[in-house]
Amino acid sequence: MTEGFDGRKRETLRRFAAVGAAAPFVGTASADDASEDTNETREAIRGYVPTTPGAHFSKLRDDLRLGTGEAQYHLRKLEEAGAIESVKDADYRRYFPAGRFDETDKRALGYLRRETPRGMILALLRDPDATGASLAGVLGVSRPTISSAAADLEDAGLLDRTDGYALTEPERLLTLVVRYADSFDAEAVAFADDAASLVAYAP
Fold it and tell me: Is the pTM of this model over 0.90?
């Protein structure tokens, strides 16, 4: 590891650790892992997960500049302490602050963290009458890609394809996009800037 990378990692960990330190206290470090680096890393994860709920393992590891084994170790310890929880989502394991979200929220956040489903959700929130062809055009993907993502969203209970494409939980999805826009992408941030005044749902 280069000195420059190590410095960036420490800066990243400290930034999220500040958030984690402000979170409600859960558990404590055991005597065999109470070093400063261990505490800082664990607090960083405790700060990262509530601000990026539904992030999968690889994203969390890369965003916090952790090694694979290092991330696995601390995530396991935090789950054992009841600070975070995880759910398996297809090929991904996604992490959430413990007790914060219901199962529908978790499914919704999982799909919002996928580029094509998120793009479809944002487009349908903007225009509930959007067709498969128009969605493909807006997102710059093929119709089969839209159909596949739509089937996944329907299986998750987030989309009804009985008569076109209709979001089943638009208010919930709108709220999650607005609340966590910064953790998605620039398009979500722009959408949230316009939509924040419309939010009424409170999970």
Answer: no
Q: 3-class SS at 86?
A: strand
Q: Return all residues near 111 (Cβ < 8 A) that are at least 6 apart.
A: 117, 118, 121, 152, 153, 156, 158
Distance CA 57, CA 95 (A): 7
For the chain, 203 residues long, give each residue's pLDDT as a single digit of tens. 455 556 665 565 555 555 544 444 333 344 445 555 568 899 999 999 999 999 999 999 999 999 999 999 999 999 999 999 999 987 899 999 999 999 999 999 999 999 999 999 999 999 999 999 999 999 999 999 999 999 999 999 999 999 999 999 999 999 999 999 999 999 999 999 887 665 554 55
